[in-house]
Write a structure and sequence with these properties.
Blueprint lengths: L2 H16 L50 H7 L12
Length: 87
């Protein structure tokens, strides 16, 4: 096979596969196998919410966040940036 023919074949294959973006490959079932649903009743695992988690509470700060933002901004008020090439 010469090079232009291989490039044409590869290009047409890629073009054909690019149209498959909206296709759901899970729907391919060549042997028509049916999934049997599990028996029993469906119940929520945590009907009143996850235990130990309060959905309306603010998140806790990490343990290393013990410095307030006011202390950081007061340490260097408007310090000029160093010029390139100087230490």
């Amino acid at each position: 096979m010469n090079r232009p023919l291989r490039l044409l074949l590869a290009g047409s294959l890629l073009l054909g596969l690019s149209g498959c973006a909206g296709f759901d490959f899970d729907k391919i079932n060549p042997f028509q196998e049916r999934k049997t649903p599990l028996s029993g009743t469906r119940e929520p695992v945590f009907p009143n919410g996850v235990p130990g988690v309060t959905a309306s509470a603010p998140l806790d700060q990490p343990s290393n966040a013990n410095v307030s933002l006011d202390a950081i901004s007061a340490a260097k008020p408007n310090a000029p940036a160093a010029a390139p090439g100087t230490n």
